[in-house]
Design brief:
The complex is a heterodimer. Chain A is mainly beta. Chain A is built from no helices and 9 strands. In chain A, strands 1, 3, 4, 7, 8 and 9 form a 6-stranded mixed β-sheet that branches. Chain A is globular. Chain B is globular and about 45 Å long. In chain B, the strands form 2 sheets. In chain B, strands 2, 4, 5, 6, 9, 10 and 11 form a 7-stranded mixed β-sheet that branches. Chain B is about 0% helix and about 50% strand. By secondary structure, chain B is mainly beta.
């Protein structure tokens, strides 16, 4: 149950696009199409942004998109806005009703 | 609306015990699996435990297996986490989170605001 690997930080200017990677193994990210992404503002609870690799929950703008290739999943945020500045966590189902999170990525909007 | 409210956090000495609760409202609690997820100060999220909708099966992270017990009372719409043999590294904000359910059971769609557990002498 090792944590998924995410970059510690990424940054971009308003209007630009950024991509956050999430690398696991064939036992988690690579083995299932069950990667989800969560946004967390300081002192707040996580909020679901993407599920099942690339699906949007209602209310999440389509500026947020997800994808996966092999053992690496990615979250892309296009048209960056100031309110997108937050921590982002990936999460993957790891089999046998267990889950694993990434270490988190701090997004800074310059 | 769908809501989860955690309680029961506090300060406890190493080796001590604590029971967290998560009160659910706004959805049919007995139809959904439930998770506990924690976040140590300044650290990332860590999945802790999951129980299926009827409490028949329970699953744990290796870091808490044998020390923590997840349970639920569907008549009270409440999820619990019994934490024993607590260690300093269990210090964290503990969130309960709802399984999304049909058609995909593999993510958490609603989260509570968390309750803080501090293990310190």
């Amino acid at each position: 149950q090792s944590a998924l690997t995410q970059p510690r930080s990424v940054s971009g200017s308003p209007g630009q696009s950024v991509t956050i990677s999430c690398t696991g193994t064939s036992s988690d990210v690579g083995g299932y199409n069950y990667v989800s992404w969560y946004q967390q503002h300081p002192g707040k609870a996580p909020k679901l942004m993407i599920y099942d690799v690339s699906k949007w929950p209602s209310g999440v703008p389509d500026r947020f998109s997800g994808s996966k290739s092999g053992n690496t999943a990615s979250l892309t945020i296009s048209g960056l806005q100031a309110e997108d500045e937050a921590d982002y966590y990936c999460c993957s189902y790891a089999g046998s009703y267990t889950w694993v999170f990434g270490g988190g990525t701090k997004l800074t909007v310059l | 609306q769908v809501q989860l409210v955690e309680s029961g956090g506090g300060v406890v000495q190493p080796g001590g015990s604590l029971r967290l609760s998560c009160a659910a409202s706004g959805f049919t609690f007995s139809s959904y699996g439930m998770h506990w997820v924690r976040q140590a100060p300044g650290k990332g999220l860590e999945w802790v435990a999951f129980t299926r909708y009827d409490g028949s099966n329970k699953y744990y992270a290796d870091s808490v297996k044998g020390r923590f017990t997840i349970s639920r009372d569907n008549s009270k719409k409440t999820l619990y986490l019994q934490m024993n043999s607590l260690r300093a590294e269990d210090t964290a904000v503990y969130y309960c989170a709802k399984e999304a359910g049909t058609p995909s059971y593999y993510y958490m769609d609603v989260w509570g605001k968390g309750t803080t557990v501090t293990v310190s002498s």
